[in-house]
C-alpha cells in the first residue's frame, strides 16, 4: 500500500484559491446575481465568502494542513454530503476534505446555496480535469459508504435514523460567543461587528451572545459598531428587527437598542436575528466555567482575554475566517475520511 503524493493536489487547490481571490468576470456575474435566488446572499456577502475561501486555499496552509495526515493510494469511498445553506459556500470545506482525501463526493447541496458550490467545482475541474469524476450532485443520497451531514438539532435526529448504520459525522446547532473584559479598544469592538453582522448573523460562527463582566456598559460597544447601521436597510433583516422589537416592547422585556441591533440578557446561546443575547461573569475563572458548561454547543469563542477553553478561540473579526484545520464542531473531518480507507 503506497502513500499518496499530495503535491499536485496542493498545487491544484492553491491555484483555485488564487482564482477565487481574483474573481473572473463570470464569477463576478454570479456574485452580483445570487441575490435573485437567495435574498440573504447579497453581493457583499457572497464576495466575502468567495474571498475568505480563496484566502483559506493558500499553498502554505494547504501544505501544513495535509502534511498532518497519511494518505494511501487506493480506491476511495463514496461519501455522502448533506450541505447546509445558511451562508454562501458554507459546505465547501466538507467537499474539499472529501476530494483531497482521495474519496468520492456525493453532494446533496442546499437549495439555498447550490449555484455557488457548483461553479467553484467547475473552476476546479478546469484547473485539473482529474477531479471531473470525483464528485456528483444528487437529489437523493444512495450508494454511500459514509456520511457527513450538517443540519439543526431537529434534522440531526432524522440523519441519525437514516445514516446511523454507516460511519458518519452528524452536526447539530452550534453558536459562537464573545467574551468581553471592558478593556477592548474601539478598533477591537468594531472588528467584533464583523463577527456579529457578517452574513447577517446567519452562520454558526457568528457571535450570537456576549459574556461580559458585571456592570458592563454597552454604550462604547454601540459607538464602535455604528458603521454597520446600513444593515437595517436589508428588508429581511429589517423585518426581523421590527418583529423582535415589537415582541420585546409588548412584553416589556428589558433590552438595549441602537436602531439596528438589540442586546438582551438571556441565558440561551441562540438569539433571534437582529438580537444578541448577553450574560455576565464575576471573574475570568467564572467565565471559563460558564464556557465549559456549554462547550458542546459552541462553535468558537471570540476574545482577546487570557481564557482557557476547549473550544476554538479567535481574535475579534476573525470568526468567519477559519483556517483549514478549524473543523466544524471540533471534529477532525480529515481524520475521519482518512480512516475510511
Automatic annotation (TrEMBL):
<dbReference type="InterPro" id="IPR016161">
    <property type="entry name" value="Ald_DH/histidinol_DH"/>
</dbReference>
<protein>
    <submittedName>
        <fullName>Acyl-CoA reductase</fullName>
    </submittedName>
</protein>
<dbReference type="GO" id="GO:0008218">
    <property type="term" value="P:bioluminescence"/>
</dbReference>
<dbReference type="Pfam" id="PF05893">
    <property type="entry name" value="LuxC"/>
</dbReference>
<dbReference type="InterPro" id="IPR008670">
    <property type="entry name" value="CoA_reduct_LuxC"/>
</dbReference>
<keyword id="KW-0521">NADP</keyword>
<dbReference type="GO" id="GO:0003995">
    <property type="term" value="F:acyl-CoA dehydrogenase activity"/>
</dbReference>
Amino acid at each position: 500500500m503506497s502513500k499518496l503524493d499530495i503535491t499536485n493536489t496542493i498545487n491544484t487547490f492553491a491555484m483555485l484559491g488564487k482564482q477565487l481571490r481574483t474573481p473572473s468576470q463570470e464569477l463576478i456575474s454570479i456574485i452580483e446575481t445570487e441575490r435573485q435566488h437567495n435574498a440573504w446572499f447579497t453581493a457583499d456577502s457572497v464576495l466575502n465568502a468567495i474571498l475568505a475561501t480563496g484566502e483559506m486555499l493558500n499553498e502554505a496552509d494547504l501544505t501544513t494542513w495535509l502534511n498532518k495526515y497519511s494518505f494511501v493510494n487506493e480506491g476511495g469511498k463514496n461519501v455522502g454530503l448533506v450541505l447546509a445553506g445558511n451562508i454562501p459556500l458554507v459546505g465547501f470545506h466538507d467537499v474539499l476534505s472529501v476530494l483531497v482525501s482521495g474519496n468520492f463526493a456525493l453532494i446533496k447541496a442546499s437549495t439555498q446555496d447550490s449555484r455557488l458550490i457548483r461553479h467553484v467545482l467547475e473552476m476546479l475541474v478546469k484547473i485539473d480535469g482529474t477531479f471531473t469524476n470525483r464528485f456528483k450532485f444528487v437529489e437523493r443520497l444512495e450508494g454511500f459508504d459514509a456520511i457527513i451531514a450538517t443540519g439543526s438539532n431537529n434534522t440531526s435526529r432524522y440523519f441519525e435514523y437514516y445514516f446511523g448504520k454507516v460511519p458518519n459525522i452528524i452536526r447539530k446547532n452550534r453558536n459562537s460567543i464573545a467574551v468581553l473584559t471592558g478593556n477592548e479598544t474601539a478598533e477591537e469592538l468594531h472588528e467584533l461587528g464583523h463577527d456579529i453582522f457578517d452574513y447577517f448573523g446567519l452562520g454558526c460562527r457568528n457571535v450570537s451572545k456576549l459574556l461580559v463582566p458585571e456592570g458592563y456598559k454597552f454604550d462604547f460597544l454601540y459607538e464602535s459598531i455604528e458603521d454597520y447601521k446600513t444593515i437595517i436597510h436589508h428588508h429581511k433583516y429589517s423585518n426581523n428587527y421590527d418583529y423582535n422589537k415589537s415582541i420585546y416592547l409588548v412584553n416589556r422585556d428589558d433590552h438595549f437598542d441602537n436602531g439596528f441591533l438589540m442586546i438582551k440578557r438571556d441565558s440561551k446561546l441562540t438569539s433571534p436575528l437582529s438580537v444578541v443575547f448577553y450574560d455576565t461573569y464575576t471573574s475570568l475563572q467564572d467565565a471559563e466555567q460558564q464556557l465549559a458548561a456549554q462547550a458542546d454547543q459552541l462553535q468558537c469563542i471570540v476574545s482577546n482575554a487570557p481564557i482557557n477553553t476547549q473550544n476554538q478561540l479567535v481574535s475579534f473579526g476573525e470568526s468567519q475566517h477559519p483556517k483549514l484545520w478549524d473543523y466544524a464542531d471540533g471534529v477532525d473531518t480529515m481524520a475521519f475520511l482518512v480512516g475510511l480507507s
